[in-house]
């Protein structure tokens, strides 16, 4: 299913390039030509009868992609076998069809940084890293990933400022991603990557293209010990997840052999001997292959790459970069969930803080209200106390009546109440 999805991305460009009126439909004659070409480049036996029967009806009008998809799935994609066709030839057919209709190099670009061959490689890498929905777009995170890969291949430090500037100037790219034509335009104009030498860029792009598009885990020269003559010969090795091929030279014209890889292979370093250093071997179920790397660092890189290939075989995975892409996607989704939870928690905390603040304000208001009531009561009590003292004085005066015309004082000059009432005390 991964193979069919991968093929469909390029076929989508070929189909839409035939849709001249941008109405989502293509003439049947054009679809017949497209189908014939796909049969050829995918190395599938032609079935002209099925082709004619599928498009045979009373309507001679154009066919939408929905009408073409059943035929495409049944008679083309379902019959494709991985490794039975040249992947680059297939993508080149789709690229040539869409490039003629859609690619317009901007002024100042015209091959200075990106040649047409470079653009084809970028087109293939774009499809590899694009999202799995149509129309195809590549999100900024994947653009950054690719730019970092090319920078590393050029042996230069990644400078993220050009991409940051572009994203700050064009919000749509940040939110919606970019189409392959926008991507190629920015690449050619140097708005994604600082490049001082176009030749160095092409070499670096070629390295990344082999690694990601052709699924090459590692390639380079090593010495290999023969199984018949037991002598050492220098070979150019190309490591992929399922095998490691070796050639007479890096032009790949004279293939000398192939080492099959599976989950049971063992990769290990071995002691120096026969005048060779930095040795290691690959043990398969049938043979043991001995190699000599250029130096210790190269031996470590080769053994690690071979162990990665063995791991992929054990996990039934055919591509390291498909695995890495899936991991990046999972990490982005996880980060998005964490940001959402953090934002939700932050809103909850803010709401809680607001609630606490409201409670504190209400408590303060109630405290002030209680204090006001207390002060009011105290004031009333103070006034009541004054009134009570006043009435006590008045009451005391009322309790000491004075007879008309009489003012009698007792001992110490005080008023004597008994005498004041004219009562005479009798003694004895």
Automatic annotation (TrEMBL):
CDD domains given in the database record: PH_SWAP-70
Signal sequence interval, chain numbering: none
Region (Disordered): 324-367
SUPFAM superfamilies to which the protein is assigned, alphabetical: EF-hand (SSF47473), PH domain-like (SSF50729)
Cellular component aspect of the GO annotation: cytoplasm; nucleus
Domain of life: Eukaryota
Basic and acidic residues: compositionally biased ranges: 324-340, 350-367
A Pfam family the protein falls into: EF-hand_SWAP70_N
Residue span(s) of domain PH: 215-311
Stored Gene3D superfamilies: Pleckstrin-homology domain (PH domain)/Phosphotyrosine-binding domain (PTB)
Name the record gives this protein: PH domain-containing protein
Organism: Oncorhynchus mykiss (Rainbow trout)
